[in-house]
Amino acid sequence: MESLRSYETLFVLKPDLDEDATTAAIERLTELIQKNKGTVEQINRWGKKRLAYEIEDYREGYYTLVYFQGEPETAKELDRVMRISDFLLRHTIVRRDTA
């Protein structure tokens, strides 16, 4: 399996989710990575932070950074699910350099 690549995803959850819902959302996304031949390396919960601009009437969001390994299809499926998830305000997935 030498086609595994390093990625990081930063996503912003809606701030009005309670602690259990926030944890469940993060677990749902990390399990999705694992189900699609990926491995989660690290999860950094940054917590609630003020947004640079208002999104959907929210002024803050719950930031989480996840480092993971996966195939290109892993990142594509994660992006697809994140786009249709109603608990997310914004997300980005970036391939990390292996230098």
Short description:
With 99 residues, this protein is α+β, with helices and mostly antiparallel strands. Helix content is 30%, strand content 47%. The chain has helices spanning 19-35, 72-84, and strands spanning 5-13, 39-55, 58-70, 88-95.
Q: Rg, please?
A: 14 Å
Our measurement of the CA-to-CA distance between the termini, rounded to an integer number of angstroms, reads: 19 Å
Main sheet, how many strands, which sense, barrel? 4 strands, antiparallel
Structural class: alpha+beta
Mean pLDDT figure: 94
Estimate the global geometry from the Cα principal axes: globular
Range of strand content: over 45%
Main β-sheet, spatial strand arrangement: 2-3-1-4
Put simply, the count of helices is: 2
Helix and strand element order? EHEEHE
Q: What do you see in this structure?
A:
This protein is α+β, with helices and mostly antiparallel strands. 30% of the residues lie in helices and 47% in strands. It is built from 2 helices and 4 strands. It has a 4-stranded antiparallel sheet with strand order 2-3-1-4, with helices on one face. The longest helix is centred in the N-terminal third of the chain and has 17 residues. The model has no long low-confidence stretch (mean pLDDT 94).
Which key phrases capture this entry?
alpha+beta; globular; 99 residues; 30% helix; four-stranded antiparallel sheet
Question: What is the fold's blueprint, element by element?
Answer:
Layout: E1 5-13, H1 19-35, E2 39-55, E3 58-70, H2 72-84, E4 88-95
Antiparallel strand pairs: 1-3, 1-4, 2-3
